[in-house]
Specification:
By secondary structure, the protein is an alpha+beta fold. Helices cover 19% and strands 30% of the residues. It has six helices and 24 strands. The chain is globular and about 60 Å long.
């Protein structure tokens, strides 16, 4: 998937997240009057269009959708306090009814969780043990990529490591599945899944160009020295190219953790040239105005989530699992690539969305990495589907960055 040659493989074409270069912030002004201006109406807690999308997804009223978001925020705050108080917990997830279920290490911790007004259970395994099982599977996959295994991840709700199989029966896949099943009921194998690919097409009209190819503008951040950088999917800048917006250079790729056919993490950064900047609002392609970026607090599994991307534009769903590993199949005959450290979601994406911005409320979550090869979204905000994204907080921590926020 090199970018620098004309015969290079087709690669990422993801849209600008709407945080455009050198974008100003428009503000309102009062008309002249002899009376004291009244206080401006309080801004809604959530984007109205995001509320509408969530209401449609859940099949409830918009009032009920707002109540759901308020409840999610309240429960996350209580869970954060439990962790601050060092209550022994093993992860948490949102159930279908919107309740935050906390995995407690023992009966005493479960009492503390319930005393905080949250649901509690004492799982057979919990997040730490499942992470160890998955780490062993990661190590095996990185020695020989299992083409027949689409993804494997820690699923807190089922208290298992879930392995998704697409049907291939190569030796590496058989060996991987044998290792997975050796863990007994701690591993759940799901068959009939599709192969995955980094979502790469090269259509005209993209926001960011490099070496004759197209990709996405991601999030803006600053490093420890105050230098401005662009954070994006690593496979967008595999060759560390110069990046252009509207035909004018604005940044240069400097670091990526993605490389075709080798152990990869799908994160990368580019240094933003002097005089340019990355804006602080995610575009929704006219479907929900713009969404301000106010932080990067990670949303739990099951939380409401939307993403912006060139091909499918503004689509919404829920957070799936974290600590997900996938096998990406190169559509041009190149080697398979195992990518670790992703998150899954029920947000629909297609080729060209790579690098697009995921956001929950006003908290930035990550950038599109990939999805099912033959997936086709229906053009609606709540189109059914699935995708994988690179969590933003992990990228910020790895590169020592501070997210630019409003």
């Amino acid at each position: 998937m090199k970018h620098g040659k004309k015969n290079a493989r087709r690669y990422i074409v993801a849209a600008s997240i709407g945080a455009l270069l050198s974008a100003g912030v428009a503000t309102g002004a009062y008309a002249g009057t002899t009376e004291e201006p009244s206080a401006p109406a309080a801004a809604p807690a959530y984007q109205p269009e995001m509320v509408k999308a969530l209401a449609t997804t859940l099949g409830v009223s918009e009032k009920a959708a707002v109540a759901r978001l308020d409840r999610e925020a309240d429960q996350q705050g209580r869970f954060a306090e439990l962790r601050k108080d060092r209550i022994d917990t093993l992860g948490a997830f949102f159930a279908e009814d919107g309740s935050l279920v906390v995995n407690a290490a023992d009966a005493k911790a479960a009492e503390d969780v319930r005393a905080a007004g949250l649901e509690a259970r004492v799982p057979e395994r919990g997040e730490s043990e499942l992470d160890r099982i998955k780490a062993r599977l990661d190590a095996k996959a990185l020695k020989s990529a299992p083409a027949g295994v689409s993804a494997w991840s820690v699923d807190l709700a089922s208290d298992t490591v879930t392995v998704e199989v697409n049907g291939d029966s190569d030796a590496a896949t058989r060996s991987f599945l044998e290792a997975a099943r050796s863990n007994g009921d701690a591993v759940r194998v799901v068959k009939g899944q599709e192969k995955l690919e980094t979502q790469a097409v090269v259509p005209p009209g993209s926001r960011m160009t490099f070496n004759g190819y197209l990709c996405s503008v991601g999030y803006g951040a600053k490093d420890r020295n105050g230098k401005q950088v662009l954070v994006t999917a690593g496979h967008c800048i595999e060759d560390l190219p110069a990046l252009a917006y509207n035909g004018t250079r604005f940044a240069k790729g400097t670091h990526t953790r993605f490389a075709l056919g080798t152990r990869s993490v799908d994160m990368g950064i580019a240094t933003v040239d002097a005089g340019n900047s990355i804006g602080l609002d995610v575009t929704t392609y006219g479907r929900a105005g713009t969404v301000p970026v106010k932080g990067s607090k990670r949303a739990p599994s099951g939380a409401a989530l939307c993403k912006s991307g060139q091909t499918t534009q503004w689509t919404c769903g829920k957070v799936g699992s974290y600590n997900v590993s996938v096998t990406y199949t190169d559509q041009n005959g190149g080697p398979d690539t195992v990518v670790t450290g992703l998150a899954s979601s029920s947000v629909c994406t297609q080729g060209g969305d790579s690098g697009g911005a995921y956001i929950s409320g006003d908290q930035a979550q990550g950038m599109t990495s990939g999805g099912p090869t033959n997936q086709r979204c229906n053009g609606q905000v709540n189109s059914p589907g699935s995708s994988y994204f690179q969590p933003l907080d992990d990228a910020l921590a790895y590169y020592g960055l501070t997210l630019n926020t409003k």
